[in-house]
Structure formats: structure tokens, C-alpha cells
Design a protein that fits this description.
599 residues; single chain; alpha+beta; 18 helices; seven-stranded mixed sheet; 11 strands
Length: 599
């Protein structure tokens, strides 16, 4: 596995030069401590921890995996000690409420740390990562007693959290879940049922594990309208708030997975386990959605991380590996052959990974800023606008970046040729770890239906217009900039077509609702290429401005413009195929009888 090196210069570029985080934080109530010097210090320290502690454990986690026994689950060598350092560094409490022992820093800053943790060791990062969403759900919907009981120790990282949704017979279709919650005389509930695919459901890294569980009360309506949310601790807190009596919630087994072996994916059995209702009865999905949105943004980081790690590993290899001569003449005549980085096809793979990683970083950080505004802005109008924009971007961020991150991880492996298939280089681990990203927290298909069906068509296109208006304003402002013409003109044309295609699909859907499902995947991918094109155009504008003003880093900014050019000429054209596919109609998908699917 490549030794991870935090891409600090690019992180600084996106935060400081593209998104102007200093101004952004200065406008957020409670973010006064997020000064440029403080932010830089936090990122620098986070990078050291990820490079020196977590990255060396990445291959260890893959090789050893987690071990199940009746006494619990043991994490790989070094994980428990690394988590102790993670807590001592104050990393779990970065964004939490100061009244709960947190530091009150903006959520977008935690996203930067999540990227570095996840890229250096995704399996490790899932343990504390799931806790953040659990904390947010309890904070938003829990009672004051629940907040007082659970949040301080979860904020410190002493206790971790999970979300328990999936059951063996239902995945994304939660309306059919069967776990029962029987009310008890003391106001609690007894939960009985089995959940599967529960990441970090059992481990030896924290003193307690707090599960958020979806279940049905006895008289609940059928379907999703009858789902409630419960908090179920592994150990019931005693009078002093410390882990006390063991609750009858246990890990029956851990899954044998394709990748992410260092994180325990558990089958969790609830045998009359004591739980407490969170929020109103039968409103569990509404409450859990707080968790799910955070989880989906977090999962998009996995695609970004897979692209970054694959790029770092394959770039080093391409510079060292000698094979053949350049078609235009020897580039290293003193050597037996040229480094493979001189060959066009290798450069295609490297630039694709670079464009995906850096474009994905810009998208994730931009979405995270919208989450900051939606949560903390003093303006109700700003909160509403940011929340709606975030809702539009979330399915794109989750699905598009993980799809392309999966592609990038395979390209990273491909650069190595036969050596990429050999375990000792570690590129196979990146491929295996990345593959789940397009599946969990809502598959690409589910995200696509959410984007086209709920976010776009159900709002009569208003969610899309909120974003395309930004693109229009940018293109209009830069229309006279000859140096950006190569980006602005195709972006403006794309932006207009985006609206036209949406209207066409909407008209077809009015006649046949299957048209939404038929178009959804291609619509999401098309939208992802468009959103990323806008971000690459804005990055090119910043880079060109820096070059025009004079800079001591011309190579960095030139590389930005060159990568933007590669994206527009080599990756954005893929959207044309998605446009043709999404407007082809549902007939070719739906006309075949089920019985005719034969082999």
C-alpha cells in the first residue's frame, strides 16, 4: 500500500483560494476560533497523525482483519492504540458543541480531517466517522436527558456510535423492516430483531457503543410511516454516567468482505435490548435522515480518497518504472528504457486520477461549506438556500464521486501493469476498499432516483436552477476573458442543455413514470460531470488570475489549468453519451418480458 502523503497544497488551494474559507468562517456564529492560522495548524497536525500513525496501519488492517469471539470483536494490531491517540489529539470533538466538551469548530473543517483520515486508512476512519452522524441525530432529535447521558462521552470519543438500519430481507427498502420495539413500564422499549451490515457494530476501541436503531412499535402503521428511532447502548449507563449493566445486544458474527477488512461489519442481535425512543414515534426516518445526510457526504470522501491514494501510488511508480521508449524519441537516453510516465496512455490514467481527486475535493469542500451555512448562518434565507443547494449536491457528491473514485482506483492499479495485481504493492487493497462506496448509504441507483425524482422534478426544477444560476453568473462574468474561453464556452453550452434535457425528461415522465427510473442514472452522471466542470472552470480562473498577478508557484497554477483542460477535453465529453442515453426512453429497458431474461 502506498505511504500516504497529505496533499496539503491542494487542500490549501481549495480552502483558501477557491472557497475563501477565512471569509466563510468569519461570517459563521461561533466560528471565531477558526482563524487562518488556527485552521492551518489543525490541518498540519492532522496530516502528521494520518501520515505517521494511520497510513502504516492501513495494510495491517487489510492483512489481519477483525477477529470475532463470544467475548467481542478484536480490531487489527495497532488500531486500538491509534484510536487512543486520536482521542488524546481531540479529533473527535472538533465540531461538537462546547457545552458538551466540544471545540465548536465548523463542520467543513472536520471534513478536511475526514478526508485525510479516510485516505490514509479508511477502515480506521469508519469507527469515529459513524459516531459523528450518531451525535448529530441525538443532538437534533433526542431528549435533554438523552443528550446529557450520551453526548459528552461520544463527543470526547470515549464512546462510539453506529446506525442500525439494514435487515437480511430489506436493504434500501426500509418499509419492510421487522425489528420490534415493545414499550416497557419505565418508559423504555425492549427491542428484538437482527440487523446486518452494521459497520463498527462491535469492537474493542471504545468503552461503550451507542446504536441508533430503526424499529416498529406494536401498533405502528405499515411501511415507512411506521418506523421509529431508538438509542440502544451496548452498556446501560449507570447513575454516574459510566458503562454499567450489559444490554442484550450482541454481535452474532462479522461479515467476510471484499475489502475494508480492518473495520468490523457486524450482524447485530437485539434480544429484548433496552432502548429509548428518539424523537416522535413513527418519525424514525425523519430523525435518521440527519444521520444519513452526514453519512452520504462522508461516503463521497471515500471516492475522493480512493482517487487520491491511487494517484499517489501510481505516480511514484510511473516515475520509477522503465519500459519501452517514447514514440517521439528517448526521454532518458542514459537509461535502458524511458520511465513509463512519458507514454500517453499512462499519462491518460494519471491525469484522470488527478482530475477526479482534485475535482472531487472541490465538490466535497463546497458541499461542506453549504452544510456550515445551513446549520449556522444567522440569516434564515441563507440557511434555506444553502440547505436546498446541499440537498441537490448530496446525491451527486455521494454517487458521482464514488463511481469515479472506483474508476480511479482501478486506473491506479492499471498503471502498475502486472505488478498492480500483486498484493505487495497494495494497489489491490485500494480497489477492494473503494468498491463498496457505490453501494452503501444508498446505491448509485437510489441516489439517482433521489436526485432526478425528488430533488429536481418534484421541485419543478427549482433545485437545479439554484445551481445552474451560479454557473450562468460565472460564465457571464468571464465571457470576455480570452484565457478562459476554452472553459467558459463549453460550460455555458452545457448549462443550457442541462435545463433543456431536464424539461424533456420531465415531459416524458408525465406520460410514463418509468421514464424517471430509466433516465435517473445517466442524469446523475451527466449532472456530476457538469457540477465538476463548473468547479474545474472556477479553479482554472483562480489559477490564471494568480499567474497574471505574478506568483512564486507558477508550476502549481499551470498544472491546475492543464488539468482543467484535460478534464474539459477528455472527461466532460463523457456527458454526451449520458445525455443520449437518458433521452433514449424507457422502452428498451422495459419492453422485454421478465421470463425472457434467459441464459
Amino acid at each position: 500500500m502506498p505511504q500516504y502523503k497529505a496533499p496539503l497544497r491542494d487542500i490549501q488551494f481549495v480552502m483558501n483560494e477557491l472557497l475563501d474559507s477565512a471569509t466563510h468562517y468569519s461570517k459563521l456564529p461561533g466560528a471565531e476560533d477558526a482563524t487562518p492560522d488556527m485552521v492551518d495548524a489543525i490541518i498540519q497536525e492532522g496530516a502528521k497523525f494520518c501520515e505517521q500513525v494511520l497510513s502504516p496501519l492501513n495494510a495491517v488492517g487489510d492483512r489481519e482483519g477483525c477477529t470475532w469471539s463470544e467475548d467481542g470483536v478484536k480490531t487489527p494490531t495497532g488500531f486500538r492504540e491509534a484510536y487512543k491517540q486520536y482521542i488524546e489529539g481531540g479529533w473527535p470533538s472538533m465540531t461538537a458543541d462546547p457545552e458538551l466538551g466540544g471545540q465548536g469548530l465548523p463542520g467543513s473543517l472536520a471534513i478536511v480531517m475526514s478526508e485525510m483520515v479516510g485516505t490514509s486508512n479508511w477502515a480506521f476512519g469508519m469507527y469515529p466517522g459513524l459516531s459523528h452522524g450518531c451525535i448529530n441525530s441525538i443532538e437534533a432529535h433526542g431528549s435533554e436527558e438523552q443528550k446529557k447521558t450520551f453526548l459528552p462521552k461520544m463527543t470526547s470519543g470515549e464512546w462510539t456510535g453506529t446506525m442500525c438500519l439494514t435487515e437480511a430481507h430489506c436493504g434500501s427498502d426500509l418499509g419492510t423492516l421487522r425489528t420490534k420495539a415493545e414499550p416497557q413500564s419505565d418508559g423504555s422499549y425492549a427491542l428484538t430483531g437482527t440487523k446486518i451490515f452494521i459497520s463498527a457494530g462491535e469492537h474493542d476501541m471504545s468503552d461503550n457503543i451507542i446504536h441508533l436503531v430503526l424499529a416498529r412499535t406494536p401498533d405502528a402503521p405499515k411501511g415507512t410511516k411506521g418506523i421509529s428511532l431508538f438509542v440502544v447502548p451496548k452498556f446501560l449507563p449507570d447513575a454516574d454516567g459510566n458503562p454499567g449493566e450489559r444490554n442484550p445486544v450482541t454481535c452474532g458474527s462479522i461479515e467476510h468482505k471484499m475489502g475494508i477488512h480492518g473495520n468490523a461489519t457486524c450482524v447485530m442481535n437485539f434480544d429484548g435490548a433496552k432502548g429509548y425512543l428518539v424523537g416522535p414515534e413513527n418519525k424514525g426516518l425523519n430523525c435518521m435522515f440527519t444521520f444519513m445526510n452526514i453519512a452520504r457526504i462522508g461516503t463521497s470522501i471515500q471516492g475522493l480518497g480512493a482517487a487520491e491514494l491511487g494517484f499517489q501510488g501510481s505516480l511514484d511508480y510511473a516515475r520509477d518504472r522503465l519500459a519501452m521508449r517514447s514514440l517521439s524519441g528517448a526521454k532518458a537516453p542514459e537509461k535502458a528504457a524511458d520511465p513509463i510516465i512519458v507514454h500517453p496512455d499512462v499519462r491518460r490514467m494519471l491525469l484522470t486520477q488527478k482530475a477526479i481527486a482534485e475535482g472531487g475535493r472541490a465538490l466535497v469542500y463546497f458541499a461542506a461549506q453549504q452544510a456550515d451555512i445551513a446549520a449556522k448562518s444567522e440569516s434564515a434565507d441563507e440557511r434555506k438556500e444553502a440547505d436546498e443547494l446541499l440537498g441537490f449536491l448530496t446525491p451527486i457528491s455521494k454517487a458521482f464521486i464514488t463511481e469515479l473514485g472506483n474508476e480511479a482506483s482501478n486506473l491506479g492499479m492499471q498503471v502498475f501493469g502486472g505488478h498492480g495485481y500483486i498484493t505487495e504493492w497494495g494497489m489491490d487493497q485500494n480497489v477492494r476498499d473503494a468498491r463498496i462506496g457505490t453501494i452503501y448509504e444508498g446505491t448509485t441507483g437510489i441516489q439517482a432516483l433521489d436526485l432526478l425524482g425528488r430533488k429536481v422534478l418534484m421541485t419543478q426544477g427549482e433545485a437545479l436552477k439554484r445551481f445552474t444560476k451560479r454557473v450562468h453568473v460565472f460564465c457571464k462574468e468571464q465571457a470576455g476573458n480570452d484565457k478562459l474561453k476554452q472553459f467558459v464556452e463549453p460550460l455555458a453550452a452545457f448549462n443550457k442543455e442541462w435545463g433543456d434535457l431536464t424539461m424533456k425528461i420531465g415531459m416524458s415522465a408525465m406520460k410514463n413514470r418509468e421514464e424517471v427510473g430509466a433516465a435517473a442514472y445517466d442524469y446523475l452522471m451527466y449532472s456530476g460531470y457538469g457540477v465538476t466542470a463548473y468547479l474545474w472552470a472556477t479553479m482554472a480562473e483562480v489559477a490564471q488570475r494568480k499567474l497574471d498577478e505574478g506568483t512564486s508557484e507558477p508550476e502549481f497554477y499551470q498544472a491546475k489549468i492543464q488539468t482543467a483542460r484535460f478534464y474539459f477535453q477528455r472527461l466532460l465529453p463523457r456527458a454526451r453519451a449520458h445525455a443520449d442515453a437518458m433521452t433514449a426512453g424507457a422502452d428498451s429497458l422495459m419492453e422485454m418480458e421478465d421470463a425472457h431474461f434467459m441464459f
